[in-house]
Each structure stands twice: as C-alpha cells, then as structure tokens.
Specification:
The complex is a heterodimer of chains A (200) and B (372).
Chain A lengths: L2 H15 L1 H11 L14 H15 L3 H14 L4 H8 L5 H6 L1 H11 L7 E6 L4 E7 L5 H16 L2 E11 L2 E12 L18
Helix pairs in contact in A: 1-2, 1-3, 2-3, 3-4, 4-8
Chain B lengths: L17 H7 L3 E4 L5 E4 L1 H5 L11 H4 E5 L6 H6 L3 E7 L6 E10 L4 E4 L9 E4 L1 H5 L5 E9 L4 H7 L13 H35 L11 H14 L3 E9 L1 H8 L1 H17 L6 E4 L4 E7 L4 H16 L2 E3 L2 E3 L2 E8 L8 H17 L5 E3 L10
Parallel strand pairs in B: 14-15
Antiparallel strand pairs in B: 1-2, 1-8, 3-4, 4-5, 5-8, 6-7, 9-11, 9-14, 10-11, 12-13
The chains are: A alpha+beta (200), B alpha+beta (372).
Amino acid sequence: MYGLVHRALQCFAQDIYGDEIWDKVVVEVGHQLHEYEAMLTYPDHHLDDVLVALSDQLEKTPTQVSEDVGTYLVTHTRMEPVRRLLRFGGATFEEFVLSLDDLHDRLKLALPDLDLPRLEVETHSSSAISVSVDFDRQGFGAVLLGILRAMADDYGALVVLELGRGGLGDKEVERVTAELFEAQFATGRGFGLVAEESMT
Amino acid sequence: MNEDYAGPLPVRYVPFEADVLGALMPMHMHVSPTGHIVAVGPTLAKLRPNEDLVGQRLLEVFELKRPLHIAHFSDLLGHESCMVRVKFRHGYRLGMKGLLVPLSTRQPMLPDRRASGGAAPVLRPTASSKHRAGHEPRGALINLSLGVNVVEAVQRYNLSSADFAPADPTVDMLYLIEAKSIALEESKRLNSRLEGARVEAETQASTDTLTGLQNRRSMDSLLHQLEGSRQAFGLMHLDLDYFKQVNDTFGHGAGDHVLKFVAGVLQDETRADDLVARVGGDEFVLIFRGCVDLAMLEGIAWRIISRLEEPISYDGHQCRISASIGTTLSSFYREPSADRMLNDADRALYASKDQGRARHTVFNPEQLGVTN
C-alpha cells in the first residue's frame, strides 16, 4: 500500500502527540523505519503494527485512534490539502456525503496505484444517509467516522453519526450512518475551488 | 454532404427559457442582430460584477481574437457557426474561448450525418442553413468557456462548483489539478531527499565509481592511520602522460576505457594489501604498506610504465599513453607526515615529467628543505 496512508498515521502521531511518542512506536514496532515516504509503497501489515503500537502508547483502542486519525486528516493544518479535496464533493454536507461514491474513482485519476476503500452511499430518508466501506481490510470505518464528524463541523452541519455493520451485496461491511438534523447549524469553514496560495 | 439527407426536415423545436439556457450554459450570451448583448448566463455575469453586460455592444465589451479581421458584428454573423476567442476590453482582461452559433428565424439547425454513419443525424448549424431565402438572422448565441484560465478566474471571481454546469468537467479538472499537484509536490520532496542521501552516500563512499579503485577520501584515511601507527610504507604518485590527447582525439568514452585499463594494470602490479587510489582525473596514488624496499618499488614502477606504454585498443583506435611516477618512503623522514610525503612524491613526479615523461623518480631526502 502507498506510504501516503502510513505517513498519515505517522504525521498524526507526531503532530498530535509529539516526536517522543512516535519514537517509542517505531521502537515497539521494530521495522527499523522511522520515516514513511508518501510516494513509496510499504507492506500493509506495517499499518496494523503501527496502529496497534500507537494505541498501546496512547492507552486507547485502535478504533478510537483510527477515528482520531480521521478527524486529524480534516482538521489539522498540515492536512489542509485533504480537507480541500474532500470539500470538492459538494457545497453542503449532504452533497458531500452523497459524493463519497465518486471519491474512489476521483482519487484513482490522480493516483492510479492508491488502493483505498470504495464507498457506497445510500439514502434512507430525507435526512438519513449511510456509507458502506467496501474494502478487503477492516478498520477504515472508524477513520471514515472521524472524517465525517470533522467534515460536518467544517460545513457547520448538525449531524449524529454512528459506526456499525451492514450488508453490501453478499458481504458484511463496516457502515457509517449519518442522521442530518440541521444543514446550517453553525458557520462552517470557507472553501474556494482554488487554494489561496496557488495564486502567485 | 448534407445534400445526401433525403428525409423530411425535422420539425422538432426546443424552446429555451432564459433561465434554462443559463443552467445548461452558465457562460452563454445571446447577441441581437445589431450586435447588442441581449442576455448573459449567470456565471458570465459574475465575471463583471460591477456592470451590466446586457444592453452593451458585444464588440465594445470584448476584444475579438478569433476569428480575425472582424470590424462589425455583421462580419461575425457572416462567419456562421465558428470558434471564438475573446478578451474583456476593460478591467481584468480575462480571455475565454467558445462557440458562436448564428440564430435564424427558422430551423437554424440541420441534421448532419457527417461521421455518424447510420446513426441518427446530429443537429448542427450547417453551411446550407444560411443560404435559405427568408431566413432573417436573429443574432447569435455564444457559449464561452474559461479554458486554461479557469484556475485564475475561479480565484479572482470566487467561483464555486455551483457556477459550473453539472455536465461540465471543470470542477473535476480542478480537483485533479489539485490532487496531482499534491502528488507531484510529495514526489519532489522525495526526490530531493533521495538526491541528498545519494550525495551523502557518495561522499562517504571509499571507491571511485568509474574504476572501482579507492578514492582520495580512502587514501587520506589510510595515510593518517599509517602516520599514527609509525608503520613503514612506500608512497607512489602516478600521473598519466598524453591522457588529455586521448580524451580530445577519441572522446570521453576512450578516456574512460583507458582509465579502467590503467586501474587494472595498477591492481595487477600491486599486492592485495597495497592501496591503489584514483585521486584526480588521471592521477593515482599507490601506498605500499610495510614496504620501504626501494629496489622493489623501482621494479614495480618500471613495470607499470612499460605496460602502460603498450597501445590500448578502443573502438578500432590505438590509444597511446604513458605514465610519470614519483616515489617517496616513510623511512626518509624522522617523523613521516602524510601531507609532507604527498608533497614530496608530487615533487618527484614533476621531476619525472621534466625529464621527458615515462620516468620514475625517487624523492631525494637530501633535497629536504630545498625548493626548486
């Protein structure tokens, strides 16, 4: 898998908890890899190893840590490009969630080798939407939960989110359900189609 | 082409309300036969927030880049359906491109089977539509696009995805531009880090990449080690003669080949324990550990010279070089110092060169302190 994913986890540990925690994780994992490169590929099991070691250090469950990573991806200044790419999905939180279907294919356009989950969006009522995570690995549901929580804040929407499981075809997959109460509950953060700094 | 179409003329007519047209083509303009702008799409209107484009003359608002030589709007209508490139005349001079389609009172579009094979005809404005008698022009419809200026325009006029028609891939393109730039930025970062690591590795390496011999760094470290250990050793400084001519005459490929050949000879003529280093373009240093036997070193020097005098074949050419050598021994000095010995071997080498090359000179300790 692309180091982009490994690196996100590394940056999360360093930015939120500091270099010492990351150093301890590196020692505990024992892969002799202090720095993951976004554009190189690493074995998938590194991801699990690092996540487990980091959870140990933080005394949290891997699911809690994954959710925090999702939130970090949207809210931390270092990850601003991620938030921007997600905001391309739509002008409102609802539009954004409905656009998650396309996210996989959009990312494939930019990084054909990036292997990320395919998301299936389904609407249940005018305000209830569910997003199923179609992937051969478990654990991305919690990251998605964190991302959706942070994106709801980003749009200023009032939403109740829940992580569970559900059927998708003949598979049982992770599924996040979103109940939208108010689209403009608070003032969201701004978004321009073109990033400010690129205008030089 | 169209003359082939034998069927009845289509009677389908799609009435467009202005807002529908605006939703489909948010950057369109409807221009009257007199050349006045009658209506503009909502996104195009956003590009001139402080003025109303409606009512103005098209050619006063825009400079027409294509088609060329248009003085009056009627000239433009004469072009029928055509590609247009325009630029705002006033304010920020944003460029745009698009299609102009003249509108006539009846049936402006005709079915066109070009390139469509047996499929249903495509409605296109066609050459023949203009010449039908009684077709008064009703002005023109122009649909514009931001083209490559899109990033700039989006920024400047604060456009959002709602300003682009859903069928327009512009927003996807902006997404792609942004995602690709992030990936490129990451790749650049990786490249520069790898390049840094490569340079670092190279400076830390002890071998010369071309010949596989030791390099100057490696020679320095051995000399300093010997300096401290008080172990006796012989030091030979060798410089190729006529090497530059080989390079100049037969090219760098020949030069590289000769250097590799020389490296082979030097390794053949020395023991595994001795150090052979390439310390410059065509300069070599040989260090004979534990050997201060002058007769033996002289023998080695002469064997090296005579072997290097043999012509070296390269690509059908005979490259002729030779070598000049200067030697010194640690036993010449009460306290041998690396710098001093390198310097003295170098002086002996230049004595060899002065004597007409292909020579070996042993540094004369009598000359200690003598300058030449």
